[in-house]
Amino acid sequence: MKRDSNKWALLTVAILVFIALPVVTIGIELFSGPGETWGHIVDNLLPDYLWNSLFLILACGILVLLFGVSTAWLVARFEFPLRKQLEWLLILPLAIPGYIVAYAYAGIFDYGGSFQLLLEAAGLEFVRIDIMNKFGLAFVLGISLFPYVYVSSRAFFINQANSLLEASEMLGVGQFKTFFRLMLPMARPAIVAGLILVLMEVLNDYGAAKYYGVNTFTVGIFRSWFALEEPETAVYLSALLIVIVFTLILLEKFQRRKVQFNSNRSNNRSIDRKKPGRRQQVLIFIAVLIPVLLGFIFPLSQLIFWAVLTFDKVFDASFLALSLQSFWIACLTAFVTVVMAITLIYFSKWSRLGFIKNIAKLGVLGYAIPGAVIAIGIMIPMISIDKWLISFFDRFFNMDVGLLITGTVVALIYAYVVRFLAVAYNPIESTSLKVSNTIPDSSRILGVGNISTFFKIEFPLIRTGIASAFILVFIDALKELPLTLILKPFHVNTLAVKAYEYASDEMVMEAAIPSLFIIVTVMLPVIFLNRMLIK
Amino acid sequence: MKRFLLALATMAVLTGCKNEKQETTAASEKSGEVNVYTHRHYAADQELFKQFEEKTGIKVNVINANADELIQKMKIEGEHSPADVLITVDAGRLTRAKDQELLQTIDSEILDNTIASHLKDPDNQWFGLTKRARIVAYAPERVDSTQLSTYEDLATEKWEDRILIRSSENIYNQSLLASIIAHSGEAAAKEWAEGMVESMARAPKGNDRDQVKAVVAGEGDIAIVNTYYIGNLLNSENPEEVKAGESVKIFFPNQEGRGTHINVSGAGVARNAPNKENAIKFIEFLVSKEAQEVFANSNYEYPVNEEVEPAQLLQSWGEFKEDRLNLSELGEHNKEAVLIFDEAGWK
Prior knowledge:
Chain A is mainly alpha-helical. Chain A has a single domain (2-534), classed as MetI-like fold, CATH 1.10.3720.10. Helices cover 77% and strands 0% of the residues of chain A. Chain A contains 24 helices and no strands. In chain A, helix 1 crosses helix 17 (371-397), helix 3 (46-77) runs parallel beside helix 7 (134-145) and helix 8 packs antiparallel against helix 10. In chain A, 52% of the residues are buried. The model of chain A is unreliable at 262-266 (pLDDT under 50). Chain B is α/β, with parallel strands linked by helices. Chain B has 16 helices and 9 strands. The radius of gyration of chain B is 22 Å and the shape is globular. The chains are: A mainly alpha, B alpha/beta. The interface between A and B is large, with 67 and 67 residues.
């Protein structure tokens, strides 16, 4: 038994080393000290970066909790018109990249934008709403990211809540009290898992913040890395950012440890939905519809409007090929990432060593690091391996092989895995926490190995967690931009890159068609996997 | 679920194989290709690359990204970099690539004869492809054009809370300030940046097109933008943008003095280019008459080849005196410019 647990501990560490490689590469750079403009940045820019980033964390956090948890509760608990459709429509805001939503909203409230045209059509006076500031940015990011919280808390409400609700009902506790006193605290691990993803996304955003003129940490990282040409300084800023994220994670862990909420039984029966009165149904319908409108329908309509204007200019056959390529890369990424997350969670569990379980959590840190920084952190070691391979082949086979890994899909997917491991890790972990240990334990006592126990018993139980993990990574990979820009091979192009190319050349309208393709590509698996999730 | 995963894994393997095959075929045809790292991503560019392929049989492979990221990429790839040509939308970035020893000196009669000396690197490491001027777009009903004179004048009290200009993150602003540093020194440049911050009608945000639209919406009276954005607005598919483009007038600053600030989008041959000959042919093609005509007429940039006329619209604005400062100076003063912007509080 002892030797066995050592094996799993070693495997966990091996995976962690693989995941941590780019982060460690960046970490080593820290020892060379910040660049000469560090003082300049501290004096002139740092307070602004800190203040804006903290403001965004707070404002977006409140917004996504409000929208994410309330909608999850309503669709899980009540029957109302179009509930099934709204249930998956609520995931779709994630289909539009944050910076595209930002462009769309700027377009809506622009001079001569849809909002003005609408007011004019209604015969009202034009009131210009300025959305391009930090409040607007918090709104845009919040409205496009709340589905992270929605997905994770809904999975909890649907799969876990039934027996508790029955108990609460039998005891005659009212709806509101049940929600606030019982369900909310119970769902906390699931909600927080989603929330942390949102906050990391917020801290990573570059495109939207830059366009809206809000100086955040990530804008600062790009600025010091590229405009000031001081990677050392950028690394220092990244390190500060990681400290912020770490503090958030630890605070939550510490808080949660005080109260143990682990339910000691799993329950896969689906929830029984209540059918409230007519008027209440309409109110619930409206409450659920608002976030869908704001996060999906409005920006989508703006994009469709632009796409109609620019269709002939942008669309051709190569576009379909491009979409297909994007789709496969995202699928492959999601698959690899989910497998890595599962192995990390279960290997560390099987090792039965407390500290291994704790350090396994470190694997998710990649998500807190801006894509561009990860890309550089991957390129540096990859190039050394490549150089080694070149000299190896040159010496023994007298062949010039060129760069084998850098500039191929391998490096790109490696980077995606590092970046998105947290996206897969959290939903899988939170569902796995709810699986009681008694059945797998007895299986092991009966001599069945860890791996076959996993496939026979645990895998079916955490299936929903795996499915959400897959959807989320797929969506993220399809939308990912800064990292893809740096690591993508010559022959590969993605929709996100295409959309960015247009947008960065101030052809925002032309960016609408690739954006719409992203949305369509994301919608198909969302619908497919959502069905599985509900079953 | 299992079947789904299995299918996925199979497809993953297939995608992997397909890619490998592509890589190897690409490698075997090494003689017949040119690898281009470019910050330009206009439809016209793709059209030109296709024309080049048809004309010479040399295949053009493109990586599109921000110039800064491309430069980092080339630096890390080092001597094994597949890059042959680096194209940026700003002379400052090309100078930076040169300073980091990523480009090489090119001896080409065609390039020497076509491109004016201030539009290329003194050591022939990079060459301008198209010109753009950073000009003033103003609301004629609120601004008397006789009041307009120089960039320096815009930083005076007269224009307090009236000017729209984008963030200092933007390379065109960095280069404009770099040109002022080159002409008048750092102290004057800092004073200018501080004055400009006072002149701003709002905190900088959005892109160049947005500045023009904000003028039309009445948020300010003057926008500082690149010429081709006005052209793009006037030819937009969106009628509201066309209206915005039509309601501003163009002014070329500093005509009495050193001339209006210009910049180029340009190209250089990578230091470790595996296909150097093709790279030179490629750049020579881009400054040829036929290619320059495509540049001039599709994106409203001024051609560097003097045999080619600018687009009708640009001709309608009349000729202007351009600042003949060698553009490599923009790169040399770039970092100072960024630091001055931060100190002046220009977001």
